Every structure is written in C-alpha cells, then in structure tokens.
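Agenda item 2: adenosine-5'-diphosphate complex prediction
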Amino acid sequence: MNKRTIWIIIISMGIALMGSIILQMYWIRLTLSEQEIQFDREVTEVLVGVVDEIDKRESKYLEVLANLSRIDYEKQSNEIVNQPIEIRLGHKKGAYFIDSLLKKAVNKLGAGQSYHYGVYADRDSGFVVMDNKFTVPSLSSSRSKSKMSGGLYSTHYKTDLFPNSIGSGKLYLYLPKRNQIIWSDLIPYAIGSLLFTFLILACFAYTIYIIQRQKKISDMKNDFINNMTHEFKTPIATISLASDSINNPSIITNPDKVQRFTKIISQENKRMLGQVEKVLQMAQLEKKDLQLKLTDINLHELLQNISEHVNLQIKGKKGNLELALDASDPMMQGDLTHISNILYNLLDNANKYTPDIPEIKVSTRNINNGIEISIQDNGIGISRENQKFIFEKFYRVSTGNVHDVKGFGLGLSYVKVMVDAHHGQIGVKSILGKGSTFNLYFPKRQNKNA
Ligand code: ADP
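Presented output:
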C-alpha cells in the first residue's frame, strides 16, 4: 500500500468518525430537548392537578360550612375570596395537604424526594408558604436567596392558585434535580456511543500503526534483498573474472599468476561463505525453539582469537585494537558458536563503521556475578533516534556516508536475540560523529530452568 492510499484512508476514516460524532451529538441534543419538553409538560400537569385538588378541598369546606351555619354557599364563597391566601389554604393543614399531594406526584416523576414548593401571594408580592413553613412576605423576600428555597425564585414551574378568583396567588415548584432526571435516561446512550466511538478510534489507530509497521518491514525486506544481491554479485563477478583469467593460455603457464588468482577466488569464496553464514544465523533465529549448547567459555581467550581475525582488517586501515581484559574471572557459561558470533559481529561493526583510522578498545570487568564486555570505537556513531532501532531485524541507518558500508542489517538483531537467550543485556552509548560503545553483560551461569 503506498503512502497516498494510506493517507486517503486516514482522511476518509477521520471524516467518517467526525461525521458520526457530530451526528451523535446532534441526536443527543435533539433527544434532550424532547425530554425537557416532555418533562416540563408532566410537571405542569402535576401542578394543575394539585391546584385542582386544593380547589375541590375549598369547595368541600364551604359546603360543610354552609350546612352547619345555614349560611348561603354563594355568600360564603364571596366572603372567602377576599381572605388572604394563607387563610384560604387553611394555615398549616393546608400547607401539609399541598405537601402530601406534591410528594406523591413528584415521586411519580422519578424526582425522588427532592423538591421545594412555595405559595406566592399576589397581594403581598412575596411567598407566604415555603416548604410547609409560613413566612411573612416582607421577611421572605429578604431571605429570598436562602439556600433552601433559592431555586423557587427562578423556577419556571408555577400555576395560579384558586384560578377562578382574581389575584389570589401562585403555587411554585422547584426541582433541584431536574437536569439529572432529564439526563438520567440519556446517560447510558451517551456513554455507550462515546465508548463505541473511542473503541473505533482505538482500533483505527492500531490498524494504521500495523499498516505502517508492515510497510516498514516490507521496505526493509526489499532493501535486504537488494543488498544481498549486491553483496553476492561482487564476489561472483570477481571469481568469474579470476577463473577466466586462469584459463587464459598466457597465464595458466605462469604459476605465480595462477596462485594470485586462486587466492582471490578463495578469498571471495570465504567472503560469500561469511555472507551465507550471516543469513543462516538469521534463519536460525526464526526457529522458535532455540537450543543453546552450553559449555564453559573463557571469554578472554575467545576475545583474543576473534581480535586476531578482525585485527588484520584494522591493521589494513592503519588502525589499532586495544585489549584491556581486566576481569579477574573470564569464565562464563554459554553457547560457544553464538557467543563467538556475537563478539565477531560487534567487532566487525566497530571496524566497518569507522571510516578513518580505527582506534578500537575492548575491555572486560566482573560485575553482578557476571562479566561485562565493552567494545568502543571512534567511528561514525549512531544518532539517538537510530539507537532505538539498530537491534531490529533488517534495520540499517540510512545516512549518506553509511551507504558505502555493506551489510544486511541482521548482525545486531542476531546479537540481541542471542544475548537475550543467554539472559544477558546489551546497550549502546553513542555520539554521532564521535564513536560508539556497545556494552554487553553475561551472567556467569545459565539457570537451567530459565
Ligand atoms: P549491518 O552492519 O549488516 O548493516 P547490523 O545489524 O550489524 O547490520 O547494524 C545495524 C546498523 O547499526 C548498521 O547499519 C549501522 O548503521 C549501525 N551500526 C552498527 N554498529 C555500529 C557502529 N559500531 N558504529 C556506527 N553504526 C553502527
């Protein structure tokens, strides 16, 4: 998949996600306002019901009174219309009556016990009843912002009390949990859609990450194949040239020249063998069940042997390899082939990536019941950014001046896997342009159960 396609997918997915989030928000908003309208309608119905009951109660009272005192009902009611509202309600009893009606109705709304009510007297321009308590209107207004009934002043829920007589008063109802009640039905949906959106977002991000990673790996594999072809082409061409030359009648009779050409053939052959060995090392890593053949290894001896080998190349560049083998106990348990390959790869890199005169130092010391080996060079160094990736398979630093150094990007990943298999550690310290130090640590013994 090329970069353009990936970007098109990312942008389309981004637009689709944004669109679905906006639609969901719009839908939630719409449902919320419908819920609000519905709830307000229900509350208004409650208030109208309560006021109705109060009316009926008064009518009944007047009837009883009329019966008792044989005073005309009409007259009674004309008289009572002019009474202050608190008297018409029947003082405390009236307040309790309203309260009990409201309690039932509010409970039905699902608003719990949480409500405040007040009776507003038009004549006094203030509340005469607040939550079962009678108040003096002038005082009630000074207490108007009292915590308990503060919401009463701003509530939208109010209905005329005794609506058939003019200028009596109003019943106010305040529900502090109004918004919670309205939201409570919606919250599961809102959380659900939020959660699913996040899930989609997470999966999407992960997919993109995987695509990018796969792309990187496939690019690296391509590089590897190009590299390998290149690496094999040179020795093959050289061998071909050399053998053609030997067959040349003027040369075949000259033993010195024949010897020179066979030496070239043998050298190039060794080089190819080395390359094949590297690829094979990696192929071996692909096998899941890595079996180490553990033996006791004298690291100092091993380092001296390998150094001799690498030293030829270092000397060829007029460089120097210094061994500071300071560990008092050079013995460790490990697989000789793999430990040799590890050390060889690191020393080979130290030489390969030092274009000028190599000054390479190998030192050892005993720490933490094991041995530490440091391989220091004065080469091109590795930037901090690249240090994170050099142990990955096929990874090669792709800066201009590294290109002339041949490699598959397999050496360090092999090293890392093998160090891990030996329960060891590897780290790198490097400054770009100054040089690198690879620090290795191996425990003295390999735990059989590990
Ligand atoms: P290869 O050497 O075959 O490319 P490696 O896995 O051995 O692969 O190394 C990975 C990369 O790490 C190299 O391409 C190189 O850029 C960088 N590298 C490794 N060792 C050194 C070193 N001693 N100095 C500078 N760069 C190094």
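Discussion summary: The longest helix spans residues 3-69.
Owner for follow-up: CH.
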